[in-house]
Fold these 2 entries.
Entry 1:
Amino acid sequence: MTAATLTNLTTHLDRIRQVYSQPFPNLMFEAQSVHRLHHNPLEMQLATLGNIKTGACPEDCGYCAQSVHNQADLKPEPLMQIEPVLEEARAAKEAGATRFCMGAAWREVKDGSQFDRVLEMVTAVAALDMEVCCTLGMLKPHQAAQLKQAGLTAYNHNLDTSPAYYDKIISTRTYQDRLDTIAAVSAAGISVCCGGIVGMGETETDRLEFLEALLKLDPPPESIPINCLIPIAGTPLENALPVDPIELVRLIATTRILFPTSMVRLTAGRTLMSDELQTLCFLAGANSIFTGSVLLTAPNPSRDHDRELLAKLDIHPKTL
Ligand code: SAM
Ligand code: SF4
């Protein structure tokens, strides 16, 4: 089912559903074919995500350990100093990462000395010849321009789920707030990293409408993180049921077909996935992972485990 033959269908959503629900072997064949047209199937982008400011976030994201509205067992930490962040970035580069992402548990960026320190971090990480990404919450256009000036490669701001389901998960901001920040990031000439999270009780239609929302972004996201919920004690989603593994692979494959040139990042939840499931996701077109044993505040496979799995698959780290 090529994208071209889908145009005779009525809406984006019809087309997405047709791709997603075609027979699994056909979906995987198409995803692999699209993937090989645009990417080296033997390459995996390794990124590392460091938490530069932990916890005490005023937003109420139902999945998040860092929200003050949730009762997760997490010790808040203030914004880190520059040198320890650089040490993490150097260690990530040593271990083969080409992208270093800095996350801060903020609702939004506020002008002042803390943002100035983050700008210095961006410039210093870029000077390590690494791609540098930030995920700091909502941004204003002038702040996006400052991040671009500082040398930022990409900004992460996830839409996470469908517009219809969003307020079931988050009430302290709107979908439009997210879209406004993404627009500011694009306008500043920074590439957009925007993805989602499955396993929050959303329906299949929510998942497809999430992809539809991504399709409406212009330009499309340069990288698309697909997270599987890690149920965290003390959050409203602590008892959420795991995602069906085949549904996850279908989502990855559909994302690959809809966004042929984007980096599709298999992100949170990999410690809950078998090596076989991860391998299926790679064959479906996922060509980026976060390495390092902690993903913000959540567990992630060890670098050694990732190295061993990729070596078994004859997949090597992508270089810049
Ligand atoms: N504070 C920034 C924000 O919210 O945009 C960035 C923090 S972090 C990169 C945000 C993303 O991590 C969420 O959009 C979600 O996709 C993912 N995430 C957070 N908690 C998670 C969990 N418990 N399980 C899976 N993914 C999670
Ligand atoms: Fe705050 Fe981001 Fe966590 Fe939401 S996902 S509570 S905005 S740190």
Entry 2:
Amino acid sequence: MNLIYLTATQIAQLIHSRQVTSEQATQAFLDRISATDSRVGAFLSVAGDRAIDQARKVDQKIAKGQIDSPFAGVPVAIKDVLCTTDEPTTAASKILKGYVSPYKATVVEKLESAGIVILGKTNLDEFAMGGSTENSGYQLTKNPWDLTRTPGGSSGGSAACIAAAQAPISLGTDTGGSIRQPASFCGICGLKPTYGRVSRYGLLAFASSLDQIGPMAHSVEDLASLLEVIGGHDPRDSTSIPQPVTGLAAKFGTSIAGLKIGIVREQIESEGLDPEIRQNLLNAIEVYQSEGAKIVDIELPNSQYSIATYYIIAPGEASSNLSRYSGAHFGYRSSTVTEKSGSATASSLVDMYCNTRGEGFGPEVKRRVMLGTYTLSAGYYDAYYLKALKVRRLIRQDFDKAFEQVDLILGPTTPTAAFPIGEKTDDPVQMYLVDLFTVGANLAGIPALAIPNGQSKSGLPIGMQLQAAPLREDLLLHAGHAYQSTTQYQPTWPTLS
Ligand code: GLN
């Protein structure tokens, strides 16, 4: 039996019934990483022996009946923006090269206490800014379905490692689509939870009012179990919602008849949408209708402003969050001495800040810091940032109104399937437009699920997106699970040639 081609739920059952140990499962994935990651580039660091040690400890606890968690013994990969204390946490930025956090993220603690074994840290766009993982300060990650294409981003490493059978589950973060878009590009499932569902303590912040950590996996069933492990209230994150995250799979296997699913015609008919994505979406609508769901036309009139709004708010928050990387506290410090003619400030503190940030940040991060400081500056705040906050409220109100009529909204995740490496790197606006269908959920704080719903003629994965009202992950997952059961969905893996 080849463990790497199983879902996390299947691996967990084998471990639970003592047919396989956590050590064996962990070793199988570590071997796969060694054999393939020089081609895929999903990992920035691999835990290796430490993962095996952890797996052995979990095996002992399982043997003594000390762990009672659905995924005990299953290995996971995590995006390198989540603080761990044994290996560096870099956000794929040179500015955090070699930085080891003194504390663990809450989600990391939760994984560990559930007996889930961390395989390593995955690559991303620097500080999660991007949609292709090409902005990493360290390496490219390739899409396992076509190594000339991007895996999407910013959680590209967390998506690619699952598609490449290097890990059965992973954690990503989603500020404007970074879980859902790479999930769709790599043919896997990903969930952005309601804002506040999962603690952000120990997540290196990009845009704090938008960031959420979420699960990535082969099946909706896996997502539900993993979200229950990582979710819930955390007093260390003041935005965390004081409600337990349980019972997400309670309705699995029951009918979805009567469920009202909204669709936005303009989205489906929009010229920018790839015809194959449109066709797969229409097919999915039929699947839902055949299961008894009611399809209802809805409108989200302000969604046309979502990209503009997001690309004001996210850089604004980023410019503030990233001010902490000055060379004084964390990671990299420039040793360059700037000679300022006629001044005695050759090695002043400000020069050290400037040189550190100039050398440590990549071009996209600098662009966002500049955009953000501009829109937050006294003269432009009202015209841009404040205006964007108001439009953000209107976008949320559109969703609130829609969810008075429907239970879920179904649409595309991305305008196209995975694009070639290098295609959009010269034009940031083209890269930003990829987020057209995903940023709305972050601006509104609502949960959204991306699941595979087919393949293009050229063999690239295609995904679709379901969105729900705040805290209705249960509905999202029920509908996602129903789709996967009806269509007899089975995960597939590319042959890595
Ligand atoms: N692509 C979006 C951006 O560049 C979203 C990133 C994210 O969700 N982390 O900001």
